Here is the input.
Amino acid sequence: MNWIYFPLYALLTACLYAIGIVFLYVASDKRKIFKPLGNLSLVLGIGALSLFIVLLWVNIGRPPMRTLGETRLWYSFFNLVIGYIIYLRWGYKWFLIIILFYAGMFLTINYIHPEAHEKTLMPALQSPWFVPHVIVYMISYALLGVSSLIGIYGLFLEYRNKSKNEIIKLADNLVYIGFSLLTLGLLFGALWAKEAWGNYWTWDPKETWAFLTWLVYLIYIHFRYFHPSRVKTQFWILSVIYVVLLIAWFGINYLPSAQNSVHVYAQ
Amino acid sequence: MLSFLLSLINKPLKHNLVELQNDTTSVGNTKRLWVQPWKYAENFIITINLLILGFAIEAISGGAGINIPGFPVNLYFIIGLGVVMTLVYVKFRDKYVIKWLSGIPAAISVIVLYSVMVLLLGFIPQDMAQPPVFLKISGLAHVKSSWPFFLLQFYFLIILGFVALKRAIPFKVKNIGFLLNHFGLWLTILAAGLGSSDQQRFSMNLYENEKQSNLGIAENNDKYELPFSLKLLDFNIIEYNPKIGIFDIGTGRFIMGKAKTLPFAESNLETNLGDWHLKVLKYLPQAIYKGGALVPTDSIAGYPAALVLAKNTISNDTVRGWISTGSINLHPDYLKLKGKEYLMLNTPEPKKFYSKLVVFKGSAPPDTIQIEVNKPHTVAGWTIYQSAYNSDMRKWSNLSVVDVVSDPWLPVVYTGIFFLLAGALYMFWIGKDKKE
Here is the structure.
């Protein structure tokens, strides 16, 4: 399996996920069969993308976590999974639609910009820390990305004077889990850096921005905790701080201060 | 010390009562400034003034930055800070100053401004050889060792410390997650920041077949005698197979396959590149010229070579012959296919490189160790890392560059990190605490 088959699997995933959503909307008391069918289709959609990731991993003989496109692949995957979990837990069908478009956007970027998926892995990346470090970060990015979508949706509800208490509680769950994984990712990175280079922290631009991301979510959590009623401000913060995360993820490649970073993704 | 700091930042402001409208930094109802309880406006004013003080000290010192004292002063400072803060907390816990310093507006103001400083650190290239004068004088060219950053971080630690103490005394089990996160961060930042001055890091250039050396080279090229010596027995590189490709000397590029990558050369590989179907008939990981032909060898002088059959898918022309990567002494072997297209093997990339070293320390018997990237070795408080080699000489490099690092504060920093990891897992599991 190599990247040539990516469009096929991505399309299959998107279609199955979309069909699943349609089935869930069609399902009713009279048409009960559509609910399990919808769930099945969603699971198969996620399954298709995970199958692609597994086969790609086997084919290139290294974890597919080296290039930016490879991280986008994981990001889309975790978004689809999180969307489905939120549906199972909270029953939001509309949320699956947003997630499909959002994850689909990242899959489309990968389709438009296919990358070279070299089989080589430089010695610094050959470490037991590599996979946990990237995985916890990608799950965290996906959770926090979803929380910012909720922030935007919350603002939308705010301006239509609809109730949004349930929405902010959903965001709480996502941010707390996402932030704890963000902490783990940051610390795993520090422990790994000590093992590889002898420094756990060097204020490398990627580290600086990762830390900044951690700080802005810290601000959000404290603000939310102490001003529980200022929901509108919270939605604003949630929507805006995600930009910092995006800069840490790939924006730093374009910053002048990051030209000597050891963390710029392989192209 | 604390009260001194407070008086320092309070005095000039107390005479400066201003009616403040409900601006963006002020949360809650409009109230007069400096009427207790202090809200966001007062806290941002205090923190910004602290920053201004830092910038002033930095400018007066000509942008020299701050030098953190090493052992034992930093140890006394850490213990002293912990003890003084605990005593102050126990004695004055009902006073407003403690309520203020362990309150949320103080915390948020300091995290926000701390984030701003980190943001500047993230945008402005740091430690340039010739920074613009403004950046140097203000300390922004070396934020992490500048006075404003130091003062802010210190203030951050005071607030964080009191916040942790508030939940620690009296201790309740349900506060365990909160304490792990807050005390863990306090300990990590304090130990990492103040311990950094005791960190020693040197680079050593070790050559095969040379006698042992204890010469460490610091980042500024200063030489230093280490308390142990190292001798390089053997340096080795394991390489990936070379990639096979068709190079177009007209465009100066390789002709790429659909996957935009070139395949590794290996026996029986069949692949299509451009208009050519390639088949590797024989692959030799170690080959050498003997009697005008490439033959397998066990010699260190060997290099990868492949016998390839190339067939043009349009014209059906075939080309058969040997290609090789060459070595540092011998040119690579190419195969001309057509016009400007040449079949060749790329320089192999390193998969793993490692050094076998003998460590001599005092009268102890010499110790033989092996290090590679991500697998350092610790000897008597010094950790030895595989860092680099002479990449021009590829696997024939007789130079191994190792870094030796001594970081006596590491156990303390790791204790803090361990608390933070435990706190993160707690947070992952429990989620949001119910507000009391």
Remarks:
- Chain A has eight helices and no strands.
- The helical segments of chain A are 6-26, 34-60, 68-90, 93-112, 130-159, 165-197, 205-226, 231-249.
